[in-house]
């Protein structure tokens, strides 16, 4: 469709209109761009009235921008999805939610005199869950876990 030097990828978008003057009938034909394949190739909504044998000059008309209402609806959908994702998150992934108040990390257990139950003959790791007074983001919870010796490779 295009010639060497065309910049379809940079200039055309789906929904734009391409207008040509047909060389044999001298009528203007307007076709809608369906997809842009490369700088010199694009797909249009329907076929020309007859085949074009030689290169034909053309111009294009940009599609009108999408309505602001549509963009606002997209933002609302993203907000709802993010909120639902946070509500379904659990454990250390539940930052910024009600469940994000619980800090979970690992500690090394010693064989005697520890406050944490051990689960091995001499040493092991125990999972400790603390209740925090403030809500923390996932990033904050990960930083806290990374500072603990048993979880320093959690990143």
Description:
There is one protein chain. The protein is of the alpha+beta class. The protein folds into 2 domains: 8-61; 90-151, no CATH class. Helix content is 23%, strand content 26%. It is built from 3 helices and 6 strands; from the N terminus they run H-E-E-E-E-H-E-E-H. It has helices at residues 8-11, 68-88, 138-147; strands at residues 17-21, 28-38, 41-44, 58-61, 102-109, 124-131. The chain has a 4-stranded antiparallel beta sheet, with no helix packed on it. It has a two-stranded antiparallel sheet with strand order 5-6. Strand 1 (17-21) and strand 2 form a beta hairpin. The radius of gyration is 31 Å and the shape is elongated. Residues 64-91 are annotated as: Disordered. Residues 64-76 have a biased composition (Basic and acidic residues).
Brief overview:
The chain has two domains: 54 residues; 62 residues, no CATH class. Helices cover 23% and strands 26% of the residues.
Question: Mind sketching the topology for me?
Answer:
Elements lengths: L7 H4 L5 E5 L6 E11 L2 E4 L13 E4 L6 H21 L13 E8 L14 E8 L6 H10 L8
Antiparallel strand pairs: 1-2, 1-4, 2-3, 5-6
